[in-house]
Specification:
Blueprint lengths: L1 H5 L1 H14 L7 H14 L8 H9 L4 E9 L4 E9 L22
Antiparallel strand pairs: 1-2
Helix pairs in contact: 2-3
């Protein structure tokens, strides 16, 4: 998932750096987030917040969200919205998604 929103090549370079830095040693997820963040910063990848904050919403939080796609008949397009479901405290989720469409929807 992380590779999808920071670019696969950037992810690979960050992961390679992480693995080299922690070869034969101990590491935790924050070490991985830090290595990926360093690579993101080096390559000027624009994100809404830090890698750690985005990924912590996947690894620590119990809430969830889903993506709602509704057809727009006037434009023959679609509206995409992230809908958040809160089961505990209200917390923001970062859920990257990709949408590709070619031609009319033909739903």
């Amino acid at each position: 998932m992380c590779a999808d929103f920071i670019d696969f090549e950037v992810f690979q370079r960050g992961l390679t750096s992480y693995l080299k830095d922690h070869t034969y040693g101990n590491a935790n997820q924050n070490d991985l987030w830090s290595a990926l963040q360093t690579q993101v910063d080096l390559e000027n990848v624009k994100l809404p917040t830090t890698i750690k904050e985005i990924m912590d919403t996947w690894t620590y939080k119990m809430d969830f969200s889903f993506i709602r796609v509704t057809r727009d008949y006037q434009t023959d397009g679609a509206n995409v919205k992230q809908v958040e479901i809160f089961t505990a405290k209200k917390q923001r989720f970062y859920r990257p998604y990709h949408l590709s469409m070619v031609g009319a929807l033909n739903l």
